[in-house]
Amino acid sequence: MDHFNYRDGVLYAEQTSLAVLANVHGTPLYVYSRATIERHWHAFNNAAGSRDHLVCYAVKANSNLAVLNVLARLGSGFDIVSGGELARVLEAGGDPAKVVFSGVGKTRAEISEALQAGIYCFNVESEPELERISDIAVSLNKVAPISLRINPDIDAKTHPYISTGLKENKFGIPFERALACYQHAAQLPGITIHGVDCHIGSQLTELAPFIEAVDKLLALIDALAKVGITIKHLDVGGGLGVTYDNEHPPEPAAYAQVLNERLGERDLTLLFEPGRAIMANAGVLLTGVEYLKVGESKNFALVDAAMNDLIRPSLYGAWQSIVPVVANSQAVMREYDVVGPVCETGDFLGKSRQLAIAPGDVLAVRSAGAYGFVMSSNYNSRPRAAEVMVDGEQHVVVRERESRQSLWAGEQLLPGDVDAD
Ligand SMILES: Cc1ncc(COP(=O)(O)O)c(C=O)c1O
Ligand SMILES: N[C@@H](CCCC[NH3+])C(=O)O
After folding, report:
1. Which positions in this protein are listed as binding substrate (predicted)?
2. CATH 3.20.20.10 in the chain, residues?
3. Could you read off the pLDDT of 38-85 as tens digits, one per residue?
């Protein structure tokens, strides 16, 4: 069942009309569906069959506390990339013993916080980071569980900005260094080796690059066994794509099942780090139409959401579906560029969209639950949008719209009187 769907020309999130939410809470407004988040998480969690596994939701995709709390209640693990994300997971009731810590630039303070919290594993992205983690663990009288994030040099066939598994990308340890690096890790006093990790990119729509990467890592795991290093888990990262337009990525269940099968008889726990596949289609961004500028060569629909609210179209040229939340049978169908009020030519949510709309109508930008609110900013002194979670017949404001004053909290005027001559 789709938890966002049209009934009688009105778009619903579960049982709640999105037009009603826009009316009550104003726009721009992010709306998430709890039922969809849960359904997507279960799709991953059920797919590994009887193999030991852990779904570590990638917090960066959407870090709202209510989202994290929904997942924590399901028993989810979490993939974090900063001390801030660790703090959010703990605040939302997540279990630190199910947290993996990725990221190329972990600071001393972040490493020490994660050790004190007792996380499950550090996904180590460089040799100097390995040394740093060992030193800090020794100083705290602890032993740090680690995986090395291996960069397998595989083309994920996705947008270059979100490809992470190629040699020229900053992520992970080169495959050729992996064996030596594990052997060195085995000698370090503050380190215990747990796993092997990779993450080759985001919005992958084919299975082949995942399989290629996993096969490479399994060969490494077998080579490590031969030199006496036992690997307990394989973390395949995130990256499974979703349907924004007419892409046909594999379903989470099929994806997880294929990877699980590659592991064969090996005694390995399987870790997944999905972000987008859980959240993208569990959320929409609602925006109101302010003006229509109908011109000779181009029509613009000026809406009240902008690149500061949803930057994916501007940053990656990403395409997301834009639909009216209530069909307007009176309006003329035209082709519009849907643009925001920010003073940048690159400020658009969608280009060349066929829409029958009038000022005052509300539009939904679909598939906006992942990398939406989390990438928003206050550019042009625009307060960040509110966020609402629909939960069956209820809905809860899970983040208030920012106030004007909060935008300058922490700023100060210079001391003394201003000379007014
Ligand atoms: C290390 C790591 N894990 C997981 C993810 C989540 O990726 P996605 O949202 O594509 O599933 C990312 C982001 O690309 C990442 O960098
Ligand atoms: N922010 C990206 C995904 C980045 C994945 C994180 N490594 C997007 O919106 O598609």
Report:
1. 276, 312, 316, 344, 371
2. 34-276
3. 999 999 999 888 899 999 999 999 999 999 999 999 999 999 999 999
Active site residue 198: no
Q: Is residue 186 within 6 Å of ligand 2 at its C-beta?
A: no
Q: Would you say the CB of residue 165 lies under 6 angstroms from ligand 1? A: no
Which residue intervals of the chain bear CATH 2.40.37.10?
4-31+280-408
User: Which ligand is the nearest neighbour of the Cα of 202?
Assistant: 1
- 0.95 cut: is pTM over it? yes
Q: Which helix (H) or strand (E) holds 216?
A: helix 208-226
| Sign of the alpha-carbon torsion through 164, 83, 45, 282 | negative
Instruction: Residue 317: name the closest of 284, 283, 350 by CA.
Output: 350
- Which residues are known binding-site members for substrate? 276, 312, 316, 344, 371
**Centroid of ligand 2 to alpha carbon of 273 (angstroms):** 13
Q: Which CATH class is domain 34-276?
A: alpha beta
Ligand 1 site, residue 58, Cβ cutoff 6 A: yes
Buried b / exposed e along 275-302 (16+ C-beta atoms within 10 A): bbbbbbbbbbbbbbbeebeeeeeebebb
Distance in angstroms (rounded) separating the CA atoms of residues 106 and 134 = 13
Q: Are 381 and 373 in contact (CB under 8 A)?
A: no
- Smallest Cα–Cα separation from 244: which of 305, 323, 157? 323
Check: CB of residue 111 under 8 Å from CB of residue 133.
yes
pLDDT digits (tens, 9 = 90+) for 163-179: 777 777 888 899 999 99
Q: Which CATH class is domain 4-31+280-408?
A: mainly beta
